[in-house]
Specification:
Blueprint lengths: L2 E4 L9 H10 L4 E7 L11 H10 L3 E7 L3 H11 L3 E5 L6 H10 L3 E6 L17 E5 L14 H14 L5 E5 L7 H7 L3 E4 L1 H4 L5 H13 L7
Parallel strand pairs: 1-8, 2-3, 3-4, 4-5, 5-6, 6-7, 7-8
Helix pairs in contact: 2-3, 6-8
Length: about 220
């Protein structure tokens, strides 16, 4: 099932609990939590205490995306804080197999992330291990960027590789997802679409922005790519 994962990076943190409840009422199943360290990406966001607060405020699945250099050190803290899934960047992990295995041993789903210019071939040896693969469709570090179209070619190639090897990992995408491109993205093979500005900063109210985007993504079967 195609799911929209609202990214709290674009939320109003003064009203975060209220906005999460609005999304839950609208039928949202998962939230995306971007963690940045100011080193791997040029921005700093949140730590485990915010995830712990979210965990107390909602039953929604929490998908934590670590854009940090030392995932081995911090991933367990995010799982303990309540993360249901944790993804790490291939570009930042020296020992990717070990890091993914550690996340799974902590009790969370383990995902791996590729920046736009990183080829999917770098994941060939860990695809049997991962629960999901996140393709960045913008350069990580800031919200509100324009979708990079060539990343859809990576999604299609990854979906084909998944089918050829009879694997079951989920494909996720993050960056520049809008009502205009959601169906095309889903039709390329993406099951989880992360959306920040198009949910939290849209012309419609929060619940309507989410449901409209979800409807567009789930209409993928009507779109030819």
């Amino acid at each position: 099932m195609v799911e929209i994962l609202p990214s709290i990076l674009s939320a109003d943190f003064a009203r975060l609990g209220e906005q999460v409840q609005l999304l839950e009422t609208a039928g949202c199943h998962m939230l995306h939590v971007d963690v940045m360290d100011g080193h791997f990406v040029p921005n700093i966001t949140i730590g485990p205490p915010v995830v712990a607060s979210l965990r107390k405020a909602t039953k929604l699945k929490l998908d934590v995306h670590l854009m940090i250099e030392d995932a081995d050190r911090y991933a367990p803290a995010f799982v303990q804080a309540g993360a249901d899934s944790v993804s790490v960047h291939q570009e930042a992990c020296r020992h990717l197999d070990r890091t993914l295995t550690m996340i799974k041993s902590e009790g969370a789903l383990a995902g791996v992330v590729l920046n736009p210019a990183t080829p999917i071939a770098t994941l060939d040896c860990v695809l049997e291990l991962v629960d999901y693969v996140l393709i960045m469709s913008v350069n990580p570090g800031f919200g509100g960027q324009k979708f990079i179209r060539y990343t859809l070619n990576k999604v299609r190639a990854l979906a084909e590789k998944r089918n050829q090897r009879r694997l079951n990992f989920t494909i996720e995408i993050d960056g520049g997802v809008t009502r205009e491109n959601a169906a095309e993205i889903a039709n390329a093979g993406v099951e989880w679409l992360v959306a920040g500005s198009s949910v939290f900063s849209g012309e419609l109210d929060l619940g309507m922005s989410f449901t409209t985007l979800q409807r567009e993504a789930r209409s993928a079967s009507m779109v030819k790519v």
